Amino acid sequence: MMSMIRSSLKNLFSKPYTVRYPYESTNIPENSRGHVEWDMEACIFCRLCEKNCPGKAITTDKEGKSQTIVIPRCIQCRVCVDVCPVHCIYMRSGYPTPGQQLEVHTYAVGMERFHHGTKVLERKRRTKT
Length: 129
Ligand code: SF4
Ligand code: SF4
What we know:
This protein has 3 helices and 6 strands. Helix content is 17%, strand content 22%. It is of the alpha+beta class. It binds iron/sulfur cluster (SF4) (2 copies). One iron/sulfur cluster binds next to α2.
């Protein structure tokens, strides 16, 4: 009982261990699973990443030679990285910025390595029936 009271008092007067992300930044460990990036020059458009993505975040466009990812749908599971036969998907550290809109990144052949275009989609409102 005494140790519990001591611990509660200590925590009451010490600084919080958490940070108010995204308003405060923190040290992101190297090799942490932050976000997905493509090296499109190596992609063979087999669609394994798209088919295996549990968040249905990826769309592979073979004709357009591009990959599109809906950022808020990605759960950083790393499955796409592991299934890619040519190792052209990378998991980089650095968290995506949280937001209420659907941020979409497109990586295409011909773009500078690991660079992408960004589009922001409005979320569809659910209507009660
Ligand atoms: S699994 Fe790799 S090679 Fe296949 S479409 Fe996805 S990124 Fe391209
Ligand atoms: S990390 Fe997981 S959820 Fe995110 S795009 Fe890859 S397979 Fe999909």
